[in-house]
Design brief:
36% of the residues lie in helices and 9% in strands. The protein has 16 helices and 12 strands.
Length: 483
Amino acid sequence: LELLHSIDHRNMRLRTRPHRSVDASPRLGIKAVLIATMAYCIITRIWQQSTLISQYAEIFSQETWGRENYYMSNHAPNSEETVLSTKAPPSSSFDYAAFWQNALHEALANQEQLHPPADVTKCPKVFLYQNLSTSLRDDPNKLLSIETVFGEDFSRIGSFRTSCTVCRGTHHHSLARIVEYRLRLQQQTSSHAECFTSDPNQADLFFVPIFTQPKKTHKWHSICNNTPHLVDKIRNELLYFNSSTACKHIFAVSKSFGSFSSAGTACKGWWYDPVPPFDTALRVGYSGFSLKPDALPNLFSVPYPSTVHGKLEPYNREKEYLMLFTGQDNHGDTEVRRTIVSQCRGYQNASKCHALTSITHSGDPRLFQKQNTVFCLEPVGDSPWRKSISDSIGFHCIPVFFSERTDDVPPFSMSHWKKQGRVLVPRQAFVEGKIDLYRLLSSIPDQLLRILQETVETYSHQYLYNTKHDPGDALSLMFVGLW
């Protein structure tokens, strides 16, 4: 648009100088090319969005909702159901009592097998590649400090003040940078030396910190498409990478979801659709599955970095909000998101449900409302996981999922305690208007509510990345799980 404006301005100047005979047709040709390019970009983007919608439809159609029929009954809704629902009463209603009975049964059964959280007592020795060339680094000269990696302390953001000493405005794509920072910190301080090594012959795992700067998908595509011979460069610089050690090497691409919208699909050969021996390497990202699993082998899900980077003290006051939704309704599973927003606004009571659809960055102090909320609503985002889940767990707010895919949580951090640490709402019944969120969540049995709250408070630590070495946090559990 700036180029078009410049061309128009120059042509106007030419027209005001009749004494100069200059042919403006070349500039008009450039203008036509720019307009055609803009049109192509717009059409391509529309096609990509429609493709993503169809991919989401495919994902949700493949999900198994066998438990859903168990909750459906054909009794007519009573007057209370009619008042609480924001939609007309359906022909068959949802059995709230059966839903909670089954959830309580699962929680109690899993609780008997759940052990108290314990720090990792034995960890792998991790080797960090530290002398990669600038062709593999997009922030080579930037010092890794707690501020550049985890963001500003919340107490310094604007006029907002908080007593939370472990809360920071962390960028949600900072996974690789956090891993590199923590490994460098271990090396510099010589703390917990048993979990780090500078000797590749002793290494159990190798971390490869390439292109660690937090960035969105289009920047990943730009890097991988515009770096010539990238696969060869990576192979040549990883001195200890070969067919026998490749399975110990860890690559991190935050948004690893296997569709055009994911960061790594343009990074072919080493990350996406890898050639040997990259096909045996370990991959970590926020989504643990792909629409094309063969193109992303050995992909493991880890949590998004939260705003919280340590254990919070229990919230000892009665919480003000029953439900909270943070996010927008124009991406991800839009059908669920718009139903959530519609129901929340239909209650006309923020204490029942509060929808914050204008939060757009990690430094927004309104995120602290999660600490004052019982249930945080977590529909699918650009991928089945979203940063909001990490914030909810960090602030001890019980996450409410609407997808079996989302429930397939990062295995190293939550899979062992999720059945007593979240609520899973049947998606199809919800989008069909058969479930009223207020009636559902306000009718939870007291026993189950206590279990959920205590579990999230106790195990949230395992879902978070601490700013220093922590043998029980998400990063330590990731290394042990990959080992």
